[in-house]
Design brief:
The structure is a homodimer.
Chain A (H helix, E strand, L loop, with lengths): L1 E2 L15 E7 L2 E7 L2 E6 L2 E6 L5 H9 L1 E6 L5 H9 L10 H4 L4 E2 L8 E2 L4 E8 L2 H7 L1 E11 L4 E2 L2 E2 L10 E5 L2 E8 L1
């Protein structure tokens, strides 16, 4: 893991990968899959994220004001499916990290844990826009720190050749994913 | 080209492909590349699209209230780069379609022309949210009709195998694209 310049952070999500959202508030943590994440601005870097009002993640991120976007890779697809299919609210005495033995490490600027073996991480601070949140489940956030696995992202560029297991993934529906493919 | 059920329209953009936005108003037409397009809701299907305030497209879509999202494929990358690099405002007596010999066909519900040889098309009607538009260049739109090339999308599923030239594309930055890769 190495730091990514904030002016280059949009490049981590510009190609539309599916993400994992992690969150923490008041001793509770959660993790969910989210495909509806998109770059919104370059400087300061901003993103949009859609988080359904029925999710446990929604409660945590609204309370804490921050969350992390983790970019999972091909070898993590089974984990992505698991965390995408079950709500953290189903484990009142535990959490999805413990249930699925998902290892994490500490973020730099926010409380949410970052998921080990992902290939990039964006630490995000919500810019409050209640109308968007209430009507559309749409959150706008500023990226306050970014990191990537330098085997596949360095100097502002993705380079997946020779690392097929570390390619980012793109969800269509129903557990069908495409890997990020050839540069063209 | 065949119709896509509106309840499945989100699957056209769920994997985060780069798009081409087409627009028309009062006899003027334009075309631009846009990577910052994202699904927002299933039913009715909605999307978010970021359109910079300096673009000619912005003027047309704000005036008309509608636009089209076209999904270009690998064999159209040079065209995508061209329409992404030059403003329609630079051709006051012509337009980018004529300048670059881009063929189009008529949409079903809106005025914007659809680009031939793309692999999917979403016809969109803007839901006015002036705060988002003015502060973030962010548009919310409802998808009112959708179509796809049935060689690569049918019955709600993408199937690119055997059609590498028709794979959708994902822009990172500076004209670097990845093709949508293997199903995994």
């Amino acid at each position: 893991m190495h730091p990514v310049e904030l002016t280059k952070a949009f490049r981590l999500v510009n190609h539309g990968p599916t993400t994992i959202i992690t969150s923490a508030h008041n001793g509770k943590v959660n993790i969910m899959a989210a495909a509806w994440v998109c770059a919104l601005d370059f400087k300061p870097p901003k993103v949009t994220v859609v988080i359904d009002s029925n999710t446990y993640t929604r409660k945590l991120i609204e309370a804490e004001g921050t969350f992390a976007i983790n970019l999972p890779c091909v070898k993590q697809i089974e984990m992505v499916k698991k965390v995408g299919n079950i709500s953290g609210a189903d484990f009142p005495d535990s959490d999805k990290f413990a249930e699925y033995e998902i290892e994490t490490f500490t973020a730099q600027e926010i409380s949410a844990p970052l998921v080990k073996n992902c290939v990039a991480w964006l630490e995000c601070k919500i810019i409050s826009e209640p109308n968007n949140q209430d009507i559309y489940d749409l959150f706008i956030a500023e990226v306050v720190a970014a990191h990537a696995d330098e085997r596949v992202f360095s100097d502002g560029h993705w380079h997946f050749d020779g690392h097929d297991d570390l390619r980012t993934i793109h969800h269509v529906a129903g557990g069908v994913f495409f890997a990020t493919g050839k540069e063209c």
